[in-house]
Amino acid sequence: MTHETETMDSAAIKQMAQAHIVNTYGDRSLAIVRGEGAALWDADGHEYLDFFAGIAVASLGHCHPAVTRALQEQAATLLHVSNLYYTEPQALLAKVLCENSFAEKWFFCNSGAEANEAAIKIARRYWVQQKTPKPTIISAEHSFHGRTLGALKATGQPKYQAGFEPMIEGFKYVPYDDIPALQKALTPDVGAVLLEPLQGEGGVRMPSPNYLRDARKTCDTMGVLLILDEVQTGIGRTGKLFAYEHSGITPDIITLAKALGNGVPIGAMGCTDKVATGFSVGSHASTFGGNPLSSAAALAVVTTMIESGLPQQAAATGEYFLSKLRTLKAKHKIITDVRGMGLMIGVELTTPAGPAIGRMLAAGVICGPAGPNVIRFVPPLIVTREQVDRVVATLDAALQEA
Ligand SMILES: *Cc1c(COP(=O)(O)O)cnc(C)c1O
């Protein structure tokens, strides 16, 4: 058997990957070998400006020294013990998240989908514990909550569910940003409403300014729990540590993942003390959830982000980016909308977004789609105005060619 010790070029990596990996991600154009800040390098030595950050993951920038240091120290101390034991990194992470959010208790897992599974399970079991079972969960059309079977059922986009039937029961969908529809859907069997503060994968869809506040009121009136999926919007992305802070309300349950570990896999479900009683010993668990390594990384991420005022910086850079994109919209008829919050930004086109994203990549800028017609920018929150200018100029040229 051969063992590759030489560094492979992009073509060699691609050939090997295609031969041995289940093809769920399609033909990928790059093989990436290194990252620093907002820069990425492929296996052939080309440099890229990364305005996608994984998918809204590397918010501190690639290989941030504080995260690298925390990982190195923790890896040399204790990588893993099970949740049959306490560990300091997990306790510290939960404490920091409590101090900086509405949540009073946390459960750790490994991904966004798992965080949503925990949210769905605790909501259902909470009402059972209250002796008023209300198993139905309402979520929104065009939402995205992950690919495990429960989170997939909550995802209000039929294309993701096709072929995986039978789906689990007890979910209903309402149009996003439609309070009357939500009110109408809140029948006595409904125990929780699950929403993204703004929709990510569904096309960077922004609700009206009062939507979350009115959804909260509606839930309170009916005695229903509000779950906010902040897997994409959380940890500084929208210009505040959590997107719910823009709305003046708090949810009962929140889910986090993407940026929480800056690339180290970790998910989290936070809730009030009241809701936390929904789980008791043995109700839910995860082998790897909140292990010392991922917790140490996430602790470094959250403390660095708060200490450096990165959410506020993201708010300012995002405003600048949006204003530049609006100027571009006036110039290109192909752009129908520019929207976003902080550094979570969508540019909607009259045409599929793929070709423009491809031309930008060829010009050294990485961005991605959100639905068929929307170009999504979710860069590291550390990006500079000069980098924003370069991306806007590259988009200008890419649309010129269209
Ligand atoms: C990405 C995402 C998920 C799923 O996260 P995974 O880590 O891929 O399981 C869930 N909800 C939202 C809002 C997301 O953006």
Describe the protein.
- With 402 residues, the chain is α/β, with parallel strands linked by helices.
- 38% of the residues lie in helices and 17% in strands.
- The chain has 14 helices and 15 strands.
- It has helices at 10-20, 53-56, 65-75, 88-99, 112-129, 149-154, 158-161, 179-185, 211-222, 273-276, 292-307, 310-331, 354-362, 385-400; strands at 32-36, 39-42, 47-50, 105-109, 136-140, 171-174, 190-195, 225-229, 253-256, 267-271, 335-341, 344-349, 365-366, 368-369, 374-377.
- The strands form three sheets. It has a seven-stranded mixed β-sheet, with helices on both faces.
- Strand 7 (190-195), helix 9 (211-222) and strand 8 form a beta-alpha-beta unit.
- Helix 3 (65-75) packs antiparallel against helix 11, helix 4 packs parallel to helix 11 and helix 13 crosses helix 14.
- The protein is globular, with a radius of gyration of 21 Å.
- The termini are far apart.
- The model has no long low-confidence stretch (mean pLDDT 97).
- The chain binds pyridoxal-5'-phosphate.
- Residues 111-113, 116, 144-146, 196, 200-201, 229, 231-232, 257-258 line the site of pyridoxal-5'-phosphate.
Brief summary of the model shown:
By secondary structure, the protein is α/β, with parallel strands linked by helices. It is built from 14 helices and 15 strands.
In total, the number of strands is 15
Global Rg: 21 Å
- Estimate the helix proportion, in percent: 25-40%
Unreliable segments (pLDDT under 50, ≥5 consecutive)? none
**Rounded mean pLDDT score:** 97
- Helix/strand structural class: alpha/beta
The end-to-end distance, rounded to whole angstroms, is: 48 Å
How would a textbook summarize the main sheet?
Answer: 7 strands, mixed
How many helices in DSSP terms?
Answer: 14
Range of strand content: 15-25%
Order of helices and strands: HEEEHHHEHEHHEHEHEEEHHHEEHEEEH
Distinct ligand kinds: pyridoxal-5'-phosphate
